[in-house]
Design brief:
Layout: H1 11-16, H2 28-49, H3 52-59, H4 64-118, H5 140-169, H6 177-211, H7 214-234, H8 248-261, H9 304-307, H10 323-334, H11 336-361, E1 366-367, E2 371-372, H12 379-405, H13 413-445, H14 458-482, H15 488-520, H16 536-579
Antiparallel strand pairs: 1-2
Helix pairs in contact: 2-5, 2-6, 2-7, 3-4, 4-5, 4-7, 4-15, 5-15, 6-7, 6-12, 6-14, 8-10, 11-13, 11-14, 11-15, 11-16, 12-14, 13-14, 13-16, 14-15
Length: 580
């Protein structure tokens, strides 16, 4: 019988006919839209980021230093903007709307950059082939159009980057063991989708931009931004949308100021202001901890008549904070040691992506007689190794561990970060050995291009991908899981801030080594036009020492903060098994 056909109204029919149960929002049903949105967004943004240097050099005739400054300032601004995006998401807009508005800003920015490729009037005229040293420079208004597009992309990145992972994490109930397991899988699948998007951007789109048409090459990511927004809106009815609860940045300032005002009072002599969380019962209440006890002074009630109103709420939030605000700030302070170790990982991560490309330019890139391997494709080795490991870990390692032990086993966060740092050291040692081999072959041959194949450089890029799969995914997961739910946007912003600081620190190290080695060695280790005249292998070995120092720092100090998290996870697993 057709259930959709009209039936006569009867008591029996009305008694047995019930509307179908409404599906609960969140879970993998919502996450598939979020990952789809993220994949198209990353494909779009990385299509520009990976080739912006070539575009500025060839189409705007900008010199090397100008190009480096533009790219560095734009990249740094995009990463710093994540802090502003996190603040806006937590105080007024919420993660859903911040993501949506950030995506729209990115679409407008990519559209503006595409216009510069379509209309020649928006760019300076091409260089004269007979006099390439005197190229027409862009007018101020032409640069203004370009920088407007890049500025909109930075604004969009500020809204997207701190919220996409946090919004995905919102879709799972982390108070249950199933939800925590699903969340860890989400991190891996999110990173896998991110990598697949990069693979497409660095192969197909970059090839189109360089060899076919900049107009088509920029139109493709513009359309991808449009698809990203469309997919995101299609899933709007499936999302769990947490309301903004105020910025953690404001709470940080309040906790510090309140604790300073009460620095002369003893914590043990007063009671704490610790109101109930009836309005947010879906979120676990933070347990009062003994760490950073000085901050507890921000929550002590010294004089109830002066500090509390008739409803029992603080009269001045800059003098009395709740215990939950204090514990939230403690969570933020406790990730700083891991944040520092993450900067050390990203310093190593940046090397193959910069000097590794220069090595490829001075290596034999011929495949057959008619094709040369593009240097930008060297990144693919790391992305492929990352993707293969995540698939093996999720589909093989975990299942085998469950068969052997009878329960689900995953590598602890401490194990993953430690392995990642060790891999980073190996990566730099391998890079140094390969560079010495490449350089010596070029000097023996008396040529700018070494006869050594580019394939010898692939292992160092593959090791970079494994380091990312182990350490960087774990660090991102730690930032997100270590924070209360309402602070996850801040966790995302801190992760991208790590990228920014590591980039600036990498530049500082390069300049420092160039200056010092130029004074005490026959020639500077880095900085010359010809790598064969430098000693890049010495530079790689120096970065390996930096990685070794990072390993010692993590093992001897920072790992204790991860160990406490791993022990908490294990305790919850044991309690759940006892309950079962």
């Amino acid at each position: 019988m057709d259930l959709e056909s009209p039936l006569p109204s009867s008591p029996s029919n009305s008694h047995h006919r019930h509307p179908p149960p409404r599906r609960q929002p969140g879970g993998w049903r919502a996450v598939k839209y979020i990952i789809g949105n993220e994949s198209f967004e990353k494909l779009s943004s990385m299509s520009l980021i990976s080739n912006i240097t070539v575009y500025l050099s060839t189409k705007y005739n900008l010199n090397g230093i100008y190009v480096v400054n533009v790219v560095n300032i734009w990249s740094g601004t995009s990463n710093i903007a994540t802090l502003a995006g996190a603040f806006i998401a937590d105080t007024c807009l919420g993660r859903y709307r911040t993501l949506l508005y950030g995506s729209i800003a990115s679409l407008l920015g990519m559209g503006a950059v595409t216009l510069t490729a379509i209309f020649r009037q928006l760019r300076p005229s091409s260089c004269n082939a007979q006099n390439p040293d005197h190229c027409p420079q862009p007018h101020l208004w032409q640069l203004l159009v370009l920088f407007t597009g890049l500025g909109l992309l930075s604004i969009g990145a500020g809204g997207i980057r701190p919220c996409n992972v946090a919004f995905g994490a919102d879709q799972f109930d982390t108070t249950t063991e199933k939800g925590k397991s699903q969340l860890e899988s989400f991190f891996n699948w999110w990173y896998l989708s991110f990598t697949v998007a990069l693979l497409i951007a660095l192969t197909g789109v970059v090839y189109v931009q360089t060899n076919i048409s900049w107009t088509l090459g920029f139109a493709i990511p513009t359309m991808c931004f449009f698809f990203s927004i469309t997919i995101f809106l299609l899933g709007r009815h499936t999302y769990i949308m947490a309301e903004p609860r105020g910025s953690m940045f404001s709470d940080m300032a309040r906790v510090i100021i309140s604790a300073c005002r009460k620095r002369r009072y003893s914590v043990s002599s007063y009671s704490f202001y610790d109101p109930s969380m009836a309005d947010s019962s879906h979120e676990e209440k933070l347990v009062h901890t003994e760490r950073f006890k000085w901050l507890d002074k921000a929550a002590i009630i010294v004089n109830p008549d002066e500090e509390l109103d008739e409803q029992g709420k603080p009269k001045n939030p800059w003098r009395l904070c709740s215990l939950q605000q204090v514990e939230g700030f403690k969570c933020l302070v406790s990730i700083i040691p891991i944040w520092i170790s993450g900067i050390g990982c990203f310093v190593v991560f940046n090397q193959p992506n910069t000097f590794g490309i220069l090595q490829a330019l001075q290596s034999n890139r011929s495949i057959g007689t008619h094709f040369k391997f593009p240097p930008g494709w060297m990144h693919l080795a790391g992305m492929i190794s990352l993707s293969i490991w995540i698939i093996i870990y999720e589909r093989v390692f975990i299942k085998m561990a469950k068969k052997i032990t009878g329960k689900e086993r995953r590598l602890t966060m401490k194990q993953r970060i430690t392995i990642g740092i060790v891999v980073s050291i190996v990566c730099m040692v391998v890079s140094g050995i390969v560079e010495r081999y490449r350089r010596e072959a070029a000097l023996r041959n008396g040529s700018f291009i070494s006869p050594i194949s580019f394939a010898f450089l692939l292992p160092q890029h593959a090791l970079t991908g494994l380091m990312e799969a182990f350490a960087l995914v774990a660090i991102m997961e730690f930032f997100t899981m270590h924070m209360p739910e309402h602070m996850r946007t801040v966790a995302g912003a801190i992760f991208f801030l790590t990228l920014s600081v590591a980039s600036y620190l990498s530049s500082l190290i390069v300049n420092l080594i160039q200056t010092v080695s130029g004074e005490f060695a026959e020639s500077a280790w880095v900085g010359g036009h010809d790598l064969n005249e430098n000693r890049l292998d010495y530079y790689y070995f120096t970065i390996a020492i930096v990685g070794a120092l990072n390993l010692l720092y993590f093992v001897l100090f920072a790992s204790r903060f991860v160990t406490s998290y791993d022990n908490k996870v294990k305790l919850m697993e044991d309690l759940n098994r006892i309950d079962l």
